[in-house]
Design a protein that fits this description.
Oligomer: heterodimer
Helix content of chain A: under 10%
Largest sheet of chain B: 7 strands, mixed
Number of helices of chain B: 0
Distance between the termini of chain A: 40 Å
Strand content of chain B: over 45%
Number of strands of chain A: 11
Strand content of chain A: over 45%
Radius of gyration of chain B: 13 Å
Largest interface: A-B, 22 and 20 residues
Largest sheet of chain A: 6 strands, mixed
Number of strands of chain B: 11
Chain lengths: ~110, ~120
Amino acid sequence: QKEVEQNSGPLSVPEGAIASLNCTYSDRGSQSFFWYRQYSGKSPELIMFIYSNGDKEDGRFTAQLNKASQYVSLLIRDSQPSDSATYLCAVNSGGNKLVFGAGTILRVKS
Amino acid sequence: EAGVAQSPRYKIIEKRQSVAFWCNPISGHATLYWYQQILGQGPKLLIQFQNNGVVDDSQLPKDRFSAERLKGVDSTLKIQPAKLEDSAVYLCASSLVDRRSRDQYFGPGTRLLVL
């Protein structure tokens, strides 16, 4: 059974700080990795994807991938109250099938 | 560009009743997915279609759940009979087949409560 693990949180950070969200996965053959944001009562929204080892930056978001350690992270710089949501890590396990973690709740306090 | 459409948005039924959900994917998206998201959990893939063929239904409880995608566009997911543990949000998503763009886009979901 392919698994994706996330700390459920909540992770609380003050406004303007860096939020660091982490994810580990069990399938060493996984090739692509996604971060979705889900506001309460809403559907998941794709915010980042990463395929290669290293960092990928998009605005205030940076995704980091370490395939040797089977570890993916998402950094949110200058966190805003509007970033408060559940962040879902998803791993493509082949055939474009996504396996999701349970999500980490992020709370940004103003 | 219109997003993924789903209906109904909410449904309350009693256990052992039947229910059906409808999904219309983004125009041109050949791949369609149905996910079940139980409160506090991540979405779990139930079934994946490419055009009107099933790619993966390994996690679909086939004794009570069925899905079809006639003509490779709209899809319906049915539960018959429903159980209490089927209470969840049912999410439909779609994506292109192009290797360069396989991002999945989710619809608003159907919230099902089984009493």
